[in-house]
Structures are given as C-alpha cells and as structure tokens.
C-alpha cells in the first residue's frame, strides 16, 4: 500500500510540474518534449513522466504524433479565438450559477481579494494584480460548484493563462477592468445572475482582439498548422 501511495504521489508531482511549465510558458507551444531531458529537469523516472504526458495529452496541452513523439500543443489563431470565446461564456455561466449559491463568507473573501487587487492596481504591481484577478475568478467558479464547468474552464484557462499574464493593459483599460470587478461584486451580492453573466462574458470578450494580437506577436499561435 505504501509503495502504491508513493507511486501515485510521484506521478502527481510529475504531472503538476510539467503542467506548470507548459501553462507558465516556460515550455512554449510546439516545443518538442525529450523524455531524457524532462526526466533530468523534473527529477523523475520515465514511468511517471509518461503518465504525466498521457494526462496532459488528454487535456489538450500536449500533442502526441503517430510515431509517439510528444510536443507542447500548438494553437492556430482560429483555435485561440474559439477558446477565448468559449472561456468567456464559461466565465459568464459560472457567475450566474454562483449567484444561486453564494454565502456571506464567500462575499467577505471576495471583498478582501478585491481590496487587495485594487491596492496592487494603485501600486501598478501588474504581476500581483494578475494573480489576485485570477483568484477572484477562480473563487466565483468554486462558488458555482459545477464540476463539469470547472473542468472545462480550468482546461481552457491553463492553455491561455501564460498569454493573459503577458498582457500589459493601457491605463484606461486597466481602470475599467477594476471597476468591472467592483460591479461583479454588486451583482453577486444582489443575486443578479443574468446581469453578472453578461458582465463577466463581456469582461473577457472585449479583450479577445488584444489577446490574439499578443499571441501572434509572440509566436504563441500561428495562422495555420
């Protein structure tokens, strides 16, 4: 039993480490994955690494060729646009469903996150702002308590997260985003599900063109496969 638990822990650790390197952008789209190099880099043997690669392939983060060669999944411009559009819809749905289940302690936690996020905005600390922004959206997703929705959201968010971290918003757009977050809390407190859904969808949809331009500029997407 102990050996089985240890093996599971090693597999989970290999999966988490490889996944993090992909979503952080450390391993870029299209990059070939050498088992030998990754084993040394992650300090694991080939068995847990191969298990991690299989799981990440199912999640769409890795592509495996007919000859069993693995690489970080590449994305075309059209695919990226479709993913962002779907992610916006999922964010909106999470907000609507969260309105039906939110508790007082959830509101208190979100208010604290929002206050910290506003402070990071005032300090022009973009990195901290981004992490707090993500924490707010993930908290709303958790309140919605929809496993299928969470799985779809987290998969798409993982594939796009490193791009979102690289965006440098204009001062006007940044200020607007902070105010939109304030309004999200207002709708959530009042249980205004439809209004929160529309706001959360627009919150991301209005940035899709900027996302795509950044992805093209940095070579994260291509116009064709």
UniProtKB/TrEMBL annotation:
Keywords: DNA-binding, Transcription, Transcription regulation. Pfam families: FCD (PF07729), GntR (PF00392). SUPFAM superfamilies: GntR ligand-binding domain-like (SSF48008), Winged helix' DNA-binding domain (SSF46785). The keyword Zinc does not apply. It comes from the Bacteria. One of its GO terms (molecular function) is DNA binding. Residues 8-75 form the HTH gntR-type domain. This is GntR family transcriptional regulator. It comes from Pseudomonas putida.
């Amino acid at each position: 039993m102990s050996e089985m638990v240890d093996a599971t822990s090693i597999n989970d650790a290999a999966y988490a480490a490889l996944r993090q390197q992909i979503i952080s952008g450390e391993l870029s789209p299209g990059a070939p994955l050498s088992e030998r190099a990754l084993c040394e880099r992650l300090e694991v043997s080939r068995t847990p690494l191969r298990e991690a690669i299989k799981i990440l392939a199912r999640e769409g983060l890795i592509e495996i060729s007919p000859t069993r060669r693995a690489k970080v999944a590449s994305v075309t411009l059209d695919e990226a646009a479709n993913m962002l559009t779907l992610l916006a819809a999922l964010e909106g749905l999470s907000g609507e469903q969260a309105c039906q289940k939110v508790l007082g302690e959830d509101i208190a936690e979100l208010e604290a996150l929002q206050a910290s996020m506003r402070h990071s905005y005032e300090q022009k600390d973009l990195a901290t702002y981004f992490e707090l922004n993500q924490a707010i959206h993930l908290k709303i997703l958790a309140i919605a308590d929809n496993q299928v929705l969470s799985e779809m959201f987290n998969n798409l968010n993982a594939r796009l997260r490193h791009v979102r971290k690289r965006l440098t918003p204009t001062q006007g757009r940044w200020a607007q985003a902070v105010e939109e977050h304030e309004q999200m809390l207002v709708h959530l407190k009042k249980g205004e599900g439809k209004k929160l859904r529309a706001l959360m969808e627009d919150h991301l949809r209005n940035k899709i063109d900027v996302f795509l331009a950044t992805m093209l500029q940095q070579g994260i997407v291509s116009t064709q496969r």
